[in-house]
Amino acid sequence: MSLSKRIIKARETERLIAEPVPGIETSPHEDNLRYFDVVISGPAQSPFEGGRFRLELFLPEDYPMAAPKVRFLTRIYHPNIDKLGRICLDILKDKWSPALQVRTVLLSIQALLSAPNPDDPLANDVAEHYKRDERGAIEMSQQWTREYAK
């Protein structure tokens, strides 16, 4: 398995473990250093507060020229995350830059939990709920957090 020089030289993976991002746990798979298990704690004052959300992160062969592949494994009621756990986030798509790092991606996902954006949805039904009845949608997000992320 060939690992990108950046992963080896910059020790991006070691840094994630040695200098963890508050509220984010990251552990690479021993048998595949491109694959990470991630747990993001729901940010305070968000509908996801108190939840622990499992994600998977994979660094493609052409990383850092291509964005990491990330998806939620824990069910979440969020307008920018669909039923399959895919995430609508610009830096995972057209705004990716090789200057960005895994920790930037994880911080951006954590920020997305604090600020759901129903105007750029991936889950249209959830986005409509947020637009039509924000209070009800937040309550549903809290309920799913209690049900699936505890």
Automatic annotation (TrEMBL):
<dbReference type="GO" id="GO:0005524">
    <property type="term" value="F:ATP binding"/>
</dbReference>
<dbReference type="Pfam" id="PF00179">
    <property type="entry name" value="UQ_con"/>
</dbReference>
<keyword id="KW-0547">Nucleotide-binding</keyword>
<keyword id="KW-0808">Transferase</keyword>
<feature type="active site" description="Glycyl thioester intermediate">
    <location>
        <position position="88"/>
    </location>
</feature>
<feature type="domain" description="UBC core">
    <location>
        <begin position="2"/>
        <end position="150"/>
    </location>
</feature>
<dbReference type="InterPro" id="IPR023313">
    <property type="entry name" value="UBQ-conjugating_AS"/>
</dbReference>
<keyword id="KW-0012">Acyltransferase</keyword>
<protein>
    <recommendedName>
        <fullName>E2 ubiquitin-conjugating enzyme</fullName>
        <ecNumber>2.3.2.23</ecNumber>
    </recommendedName>
</protein>
<keyword id="KW-0833">Ubl conjugation pathway</keyword>
<dbReference type="GO" id="GO:0061631">
    <property type="term" value="F:ubiquitin conjugating enzyme activity"/>
</dbReference>
<dbReference type="InterPro" id="IPR016135">
    <property type="entry name" value="UBQ-conjugating_enzyme/RWD"/>
</dbReference>
<comment type="similarity">
    <text>Belongs to the ubiquitin-conjugating enzyme family.</text>
</comment>
<keyword id="KW-0067">ATP-binding</keyword>
<dbReference type="InterPro" id="IPR000608">
    <property type="entry name" value="UBC"/>
</dbReference>
